[in-house]
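Whiteboard transcription, Tuesday session. T.W. wrote the structure tokens on the left side:
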């Protein structure tokens, strides 16, 4: 339904437009005089989306130019970046980080404007990204220390280290365009892989302040950027066979399409973060106030636009009425506004078609027997959709199996504990699940039933990614590869070794190489 404006959503200051006319290739910021795409904020000014600026729409020739620059930096494994010492690569990343922190305000404000993320959450995304970079550098030092000693096994003396994989294409999502991009970009870089960065469809301009820091901190061709339609700039790169690693966070359909373009797909390592349909199981013994609080945040933080969001709440029948009544009331109390509104809980959606898409999901469920359970549900004010709590949902409804990725909260009811376990087992996705219960026997049954279906089970708390030292991955259609701080370093590298028979002559050769620092691979130096 449409309504009058939900609240005043005016930001404190109008943005200064960013008309980006540069792209980074081969260590230089190149001028672009070709076609551009206009960028509009979901935040309205005078009732219309606010103009934020524009960015280049590159073509296939520019994409191949970026690939050529990255290939030179890679040098088939003998380029300046993969053969650089770990300490030197760390120094480049540290230099970049200091330059990045200097433009924090520009990045944060642009992030809030571009995707409608609240100002506090935009600040958290930036600061968490900085922390992730620092944690990654600490982890790579630890990894380097572990590989700095020689091993002697069964008459063979060897040194085993992590080696880079090659040219890496990094493609992040619009919902965390800075953080999720950097959780693949930084590990790929520090392990010795040159990268090509392709921003998401939304959240492009926030990278503009970082182009000069990239150019200043890294050698030529180590970091390159491309902009434009995926079919125009991504497909030709992958089809060329020149991409060694694909780091992609998005839908499984898009990932499959990209992977199919590679002439030898088994040669392209894929690190993928894909869809999720995380389930919260609320049992009769749950502490309902805490469960409602966690499910509210888990379902609707950043309008539910998170892969880790709770996207189906499975509630036991004895507590269904009390839980849904309390949750619906809590949802109706959410503050609607702009990213700068104090205490805001609902902000504009960056995808122009998102409000109508959410409305269609709700309408489908209602047509098939569900009810809308909260009073303010589904009110549309241009780019804003007020969250809808819908239930009970059942198989056959789109909300049962589709990832809504938006402010709709579907609730299902169950009578036997095996029912929600079966729902998770039969689902296409397997990222995380949450359990709300105070019965240890019940919790044990649920954990055992879920642990081989999802990759993280959360007890009496919402699904989440952090802390970043913990593994972040998924089963089935939800992920490929693991992205904790340490796991990401392994995802963007491979174990490689140099070994020899343990003879006096070979020991002398290896000792001479190490003592004279003739090799960047064979070394017993390690980082504090």
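and on the right, the sequence the group agreed on:
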């Amino acid at each position: 339904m449409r309504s009058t404006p939900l609240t005043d959503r005016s930001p404190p200051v109008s943005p200064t437009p960013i008309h980006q006319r540069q792209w980074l290739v081969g260590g230089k910021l190149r001028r672009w005089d070709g076609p551009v795409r206009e960028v509009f904020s979901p935040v309205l000014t005078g009732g219309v989306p606010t103009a934020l600026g524009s960015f280049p729409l590159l073509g296939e020739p520019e994409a191949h130019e970026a690939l050529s620059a990255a290939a030179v930096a890679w040098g088939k494994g003998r380029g300046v970046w993969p053969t650089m010492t770990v300490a030197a690569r760390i120094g480049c990343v540290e230099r970049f980080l200091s330059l990045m922190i200097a433009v924090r305000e520009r990045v944060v404000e642009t992030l809030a404007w571009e995707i409608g993320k609240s100002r506090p959450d935009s600040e958290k995304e930036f600061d968490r990204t900085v922390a992730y970079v620092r944690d990654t550098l600490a982890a790579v030092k630890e990894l380097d220390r572990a590989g700095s000693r020689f091993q002697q096994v069964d008459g063979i003396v060897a040194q085993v280290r992590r080696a880079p994989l090659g040219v890496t294409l990094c493609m992040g999502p619009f919902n965390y365009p800075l953080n999720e991009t950097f959780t693949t970009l930084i590990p790929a870089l520090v392990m010795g892989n040159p990268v090509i960065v392709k921003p998401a469809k939304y959240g492009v301009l926030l990278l503009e302040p970082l182009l000069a820091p990239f150019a200043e901190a890294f050698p030529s061709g180590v970091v390159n950027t491309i902009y434009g339609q995926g079919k125009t700039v991504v497909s030709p790169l992958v089809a060329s066979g020149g991409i060694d690693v694909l780091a992609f966070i998005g839908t499984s359909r898009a990932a499959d399409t990209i992977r199919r373009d590679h002439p030898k797909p088994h040669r392209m390592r894929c690190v993928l973060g894909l869809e999720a349909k995380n389930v919260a199981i609320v049992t009769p013994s749950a502490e309902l106030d805490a469960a409602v609080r966690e499910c509210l945040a888990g379902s609707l933080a950043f309008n539910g636009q998170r892969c880790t969001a709770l996207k189906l709440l499975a509630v036991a029948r004895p507590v269904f009425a009390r839980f849904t009544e309390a949750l619906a009331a809590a949802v109706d109390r959410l503050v609607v506004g702009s990213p700068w509104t104090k205490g805001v809980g609902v902000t504009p959606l960056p995808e122009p078609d998102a409000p109508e898409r959410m409305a269609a999901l709700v309408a489908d469920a209602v047509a098939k027997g569900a009810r809308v359970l909260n009073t303010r549900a589904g009110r549309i004010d241009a780019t804003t959709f007020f969250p809808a709590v819908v239930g009970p949902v059942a198989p056959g409804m789109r909300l049962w199996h589709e990832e809504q990725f938006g402010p709709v909260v579907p609730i299902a009811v169950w009578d036997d504990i095996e029912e929600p376990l079966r729902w998770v087992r039969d689902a296409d996705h397997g990222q995380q699940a949450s359990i709300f219960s105070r019965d240890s026997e019940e919790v044990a049954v649920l954990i055992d039933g879920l642990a081989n279906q999802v990759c993280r089970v959360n007890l009496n708390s919402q699904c989440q990614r952090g802390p970043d030292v913990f593994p972040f991955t998924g089963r089935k259609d939800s992920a490929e590869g693991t992205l904790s701080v340490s796991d990401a370093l392994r995802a963007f590298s491979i174990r490689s070794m140099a070994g020899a028979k343990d003879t006096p002559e070979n020991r002398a050769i290896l000792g001479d190489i190490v003592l004279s620092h003739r090799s960047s691979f064979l070394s017993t130096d390690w980082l504090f």
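Someone added at the bottom: Residues 119-146 form the longest helix (28 residues).
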